[in-house]
Every structure is written in structure tokens, then in C-alpha cells.
Design a protein that fits this description.
The chain has about 270 residues and is α+β, with helices and mostly antiparallel strands. The protein has 3 domains: about 110 residues, Helix Hairpins; about 50 residues, SH3 type barrels (Roll); about 80 residues, Alpha-Beta Plaits (2-Layer Sandwich). The protein has 8 helices and 8 strands; from the N terminus they run αααααββββαββαββα. The protein has a 5-stranded antiparallel beta sheet. A 3-stranded antiparallel beta sheet has the order 6-8-7, with helices on one face. α2 runs antiparallel to α3 and α4 packs across α5. The relative contact order is 0.08.
């Protein structure tokens, strides 16, 4: 019994037979490898050319990344099919099989397909771009990357948070960088006997020489609420660079506190 198994293995793994098989498939294998390498080189050349064209067109990083990914999938996909054809495989039947398999996989991976479709909508609608400051699903951060599957932001404390694109589409979105200027505000309560005119004058003096804060529109104070003993005021300013809003908002609050700490109502 053992002798028959050993004899069968020797027959199957005979060095001469293996050598003949390697020689028979080598031309096709080498041709397939060479074909794929050529397509890869084509992708590299086209990628550089596309980057040059997109730079001349002044497209933002979001759309540039989308077109680069699209080019990669198309060229590399075509290279794989061409390489398989060089191996003697029927690529038409493979494509047909992928179509049938795609339907089956689609039902099993509907969430993934939903993310891909949502990614296309984000690229098309462009509610935000790479580098924008946003709040997605209650999470604040700077957009670091947008792919067809997910959107990634970096929080102020350096954490990377990844959101499926379907969640991005379905969640409320707040953008801090869609417009050139941004308003920041803070409310404080004072005793009712204070002079609003004096407070307005002192408040305007704080930011009169700071180029980060706009003069038109300038600093404003509005009465939010009042009682017989207190008045609640909202202090607001417009900043020139919305991407600095966190540090400027902290500076804004500190200056208000330092200026009015003697008369703030507990």
C-alpha cells in the first residue's frame, strides 16, 4: 500500500515532468508579468500627467484624490485582465462570472456598497474637502482624507476618527471653513447696574489692534436676557482666518475674562 503511494507521488512529482510543465507555462507567465508591469508603468506615467493637469486646473485635494483613485482602478484592473489573458484564460468568461458573483456579493455587502455610493455623492456634492474643519456626528476635527469608502478626520488632540461615508451622508454636518470669515461668541452675566456703553467701549478696545479680528463687521454686544438684578450679554467678533478659530476663541474668552472679571455676576 505504502509502496503504491510512494510510486504515485514519484510519478506526479517527477523532475522531468515538472521541468516540462515549467517550460510550457514560462512563456505565458513571463508575458503576463511583463504585460502587468507595462500597465503599471502606464499608470505611473498617467498619474504624473493627471497630477499636472489637475494642478493647472486648480482642483482641490478632494477631487484630485478621487480622479487619481479612479485612474488607478481602471488602469490596474485592465492590466490584471490583460495579464490573465496572456496566461490563456478566457477573460470574457471571467468578467461574466464577476458580474454574477458581484450580484451575490452585493446582497451580502450592501453596507460596503452603500458607503461607496455615499463616497461618490460626497465627491459630487462636495459639502467639505480635505483640510476643512468640520463636525460630523458630533465629532470635531480637520478632514485628513476622503476615500470612496470612508471619511477620516483628525481631532484637536491628535486622534484619527474614521466615518463610513453612509454615516457622513446621513448625519448633520457643520463646516467651519466653507466661508472666508467666522463669527465667535460668548455670553456672560453682569449686575443690572452696569453701563452698557462702558462695556461696549471696553470690549471694542480689546480687539482694536489685533489683525486676527475684523473691524467690519466689528465687535458686537447684544442683550440676551435680563432680570431686575442682572443682565446677560453676548459678546461676539468676526475672525479673519476661520482655520484659527479654536485658538482665537480661547484668546477671545481669556481677554473678556481679564477685562470684566471684576464686575462679572457670580
Amino acid at each position: 500500500m505504502i509502496a503504491k503511494v510512494v510510486a504515485s507521488l514519484k510519478a506526479r512529482f517527477d523532475p522531468d515532468l515538472i521541468a516540462k510543465w515549467v517550460l510550457s507555462v514560462s512563456p505565458g507567465l513571463l508575458s503576463a508579468i511583463l504585460t502587468f508591469v507595462i500597465f503599471w508603468l502606464i499608470f505611473l506615467v498617467l498619474s504624473r500627467f493627471l497630477a499636472y493637469i489637475l494642478k493647472k486646473a486648480c482642483l482641490d485635494q478632494t477631487l484630485s484624490a478621487f480622479f487619481h483613485d479612479l485612474l488607478k482602478y481602471v488602469v490596474i484592473g485592465a492590466g490584471i485582465l490583460a495579464a490573465l489573458s496572456e496566461l490563456g484564460l478566457n477573460t470574457s468568461s471571467i468578467i461574466a462570472s464577476l458580474g454574477v458573483a458581484g450580484l451575490t456579493i452585493g446582497f451580502a455587502a450592501k453596507d460596503t456598497l452603500s458607503n461607496l455610493m455615499s463616497g461618490l455623492f460626497i465627491f459630487w456634492d462636495r459639502p467639505f474637502g480635505v483640510g476643512d474643519l468640520v463636525i460630523i456626528a458630533g465629532q470635531y476635527g480637520r478632514v485628513s482624507e476622503i476615500t470612496l469608502r470612508s471619511t477620516r478626520i483628525v481631532t484637536p488632540d491628535g486622534k484619527m476618527v474614521s466615518f463610513p461615508n453612509s454615516k457622513v451622508i446621513d448625519s448633520p454636518l457643520t463646516s467651519y471653513t466653507n466661508f472666508p470669515n467666522l463669527k465667535i461668541a460668548y455670553s456672560l452675566s453682569f449686575p443690572a447696574i452696569v453701563s452698557l456703553e462702558d462695556i461696549r467701549r471696553d470690549f471694542a478696545d480689546i480687539f482694536s489692534d489685533n489683525a486676527n479680528f475684523l473691524t467690519k463687521p466689528g465687535p458686537e454686544i447684544n442683550v440676551v436676557d435680563f432680570t431686575a438684578t442682572s443682565v446677560k450679554l453676548e459678546f461676539s467678533v468676526w475672525i479673519d482666518d476661520e482655520k484659527k478659530h479654536i485658538e482665537l476663541e480661547n484668546f477671545f474668552r481669556e481677554k473678556i475674562f481679564e477685562k470684566f472679571k471684576q464686575i462679572i455676576k457670580p
